Amino acid sequence: MKKKGFIFDLDGVIVDTAKYHYLAWQRLAQSLGFSFSEVQNEELKGVSRVRSLEKILAWGGVTLSETDFKEQLHKKNEDYLSYIDSMSRDELLPDVERVLLYLKNQGQPIALGSASKNARLILKKTNLFDLFDIIVDGTNVTKAKPSPEVFLVAAKQLEIAPEACIVFEDSVAGIQAANTAGMLSIGVGEASVLGKADRVIKNFTELPNDQLDQFIQS
Ligand code: BG6
Ligand code: MG
Predict the structure, then answer these.
(1) Considering the domain 5-16+91-217 in this protein, what is its CATH number?
(2) Which atom of ligand 1 is closest in space to residue 9's alpha carbon?
(3) What is the pLDDT of residues 84-126, one digit of tens each?
(4) Ligand 2 center to residue 10 CA distance, Å?
């Protein structure tokens, strides 16, 4: 049996948390006296917490002291975690669990490649933690997507060559990271946004098991 490295982003690919990040950032921006658009929000997907705040403040033309910056970061995460607290397995995105279970049953290596520092918590909350052989998250990398670091570290830990890895991503920055890493990039979302991906699916219902077999054999 051939082995490929299957690398999944978390927010917006496995769980429907992208909307909670957006809500929490919007609340923060409003408290500072400005708001930002959904188009700008696309630019925050896949981007680390610190970098996201830097971008938001630049959009709003606001400068904060180091102490205030840290406080806002903390507040945003508390707000985000209050949504996560009441999250259940209903928030798993369509068919992603079927895909993970199928790959696991086929003995395929599975990794998480996420910018989030809350990744382990969310995987535990949704009972998916044990399906992952490797978890690389915001606590393990120094360079945020679009740097390929997170995916290259995942491939290394899986002991699979980057060329034999398949990345599932919902963010523009993440698709760029996967492409730079020399991996097959599958965009999960809108083709109009994720045009640089090797292939785009709306969600995992578009990837039946025989398509997964093709990925494994290719
Ligand atoms: C990414 C999200 O997965 O994780 C971003 O797409 C988020 O929106 C980033 O900012 C960092 O997440 P966290 O949970 O560490 O704040
Ligand atoms: Mg994402």
Answers:
(1) 3.40.50.1000
(2) 3
(3) 998 888 899 999 999 999 999 999 999 999 999 999 999 999 9
(4) 6
Compute the CA torsion angle 4, 101, 118, 175 (nearest 10 deg): 40
C-alpha–C-alpha distance, residues 98 and 57, integer Å: 40
CATH fold group of domain 18-84 = DNA polymerase; domain 1 (1.10.150)
Q: Beta strand pairing status for 134-136 and 5-8?
A: unpaired
**Which residue ranges have their beta carbon within 6 Å of ligand 1?**
10-11, 21, 44-49, 52, 77, 114-118, 138, 171
Question: Could you confirm whether 11 is annotated as catalytic?
Answer: yes
Q: Which region holds residue 31: left if phi is over 0, alpha if psi is between -120 and 50, else beta?
A: alpha
Q: Residue with structure tokens 């700008």?
A: 40
Q: Where are the domains of the chain?
A: 5-16+91-217, 18-84
pLDDT, residue 1, reads: 76
Q: For ligand 1, what atom is nearest to the CA of residue 22?
A: 8
Say whether 116 sits in a helix, a strand or coil: coil
Q: pLDDT tens digits, residue range 142-192?
A: 998 999 999 999 999 999 999 999 999 999 999 999 999 999 999 999 999
| CA angle at 208 for the pair 206 and 213, rounded to the nearest 5° | 130
